[in-house]
Amino acid sequence: LFNAGNERIKREYFEWEKEANGKSQKTIDNIRAALYLFEEITNFQDFKNFKKEFAIDFKKELMKKKNKKTNKLVSKTYLLHTTRYLMDFFKWVSCQAGYKSKIHLPDIAYFNLSDKDKQIANSPSDKQYPTLEQIECVIKKMPAETEIQKRDRALIAFLILTGARVNAVASLKMKHVFLEEGYVVQDPNDVKTKSSKKITTYFFPVGDLFRDIFVDWVNFLKNEKHVDYDSPLFPKTHLELDENNQFICEHLDGGHWQSTTPIREIVETAFESAGFFRYTPHAFRNTLTQLLYELCKTPEHLKAWSQNFGHSSPMTTVTSYGKIPLDNQGKIIKSLGTYEDDKPITKKELKELLSQMEKA
Predict the structure, then answer these.
(1) What pTM value is reported for the model?
(2) What CA–CA distances, in Å, run from 304 to 158, 180, 317?
(3) Could you give the 3-state DSSP secondary structure of residue 186?
(4) pLDDT value for 349
């Protein structure tokens, strides 16, 4: 089902978001999904007929929606993002010819969630992430006989060495790796980085095991597969049919993965096979931020660690990935003031420290 008039104005809006607002395709796809959900719930009513009752009814139905994976009610964060997409859309539509006199601007505000729901949506969640020891355990249990197994093992090693996002990992090429110097350049001309940033990532100090596995992988590609510098760092799997017309996966393909789903599946399956929770690749960034607390002793250390993530500010790293687990929080608080060398920090010193964190 669809409404022809709605489809026309939606196309114009998507073009405006992309060309005038600079929104990514992923964001536009999220907006498209939110609009289609609204149309489904309102029986594909013409947007010109919009009124506050539509917004109120939509919120009620949205709050009943369940997550397909967990079968639980969708999160408050999802509710907030979806309603904001719709508010932005209808604000824009209300300024377009043929809609100005039809849509009453104050009615759009009825998409707003309650203050309580907004607070919940904006509160940091308790994210699950693996310990460094668990990742090491997983990688030691992974077989490395076939080239597919070697790739999968090296992939997990690379994720903890760099904390790179899956979109970047899927699009990295051999030419972006500098083994001797120990870093990777995520060049937005080739690599799908967040906000198209250029990110130079030095290998995090997570131990020789991970580095050795990754170095062996790169040398395998160079010396045995004879790939060139424009080849994928992690080539996708080549699918072929066996004599029984069943798909088999024994060799690498020369191309990049077209989506990040295989990477997520490789990581989650490896953890599950080792008897752990199915951690996602993104959770490795939380693991590395916990390591930050152990190793970084100065604002300069913190700034360098943050830049390695691709963040412009250390506060982004700490607030996005650095929530301290409750047991560690308790230990830290209980230990304060128990050592002779402990001295209370003055207001002046605290102000200087926060300033250095931003400027380092």
Answers:
(1) 0.72
(2) 19, 20, 11
(3) strand
(4) 60
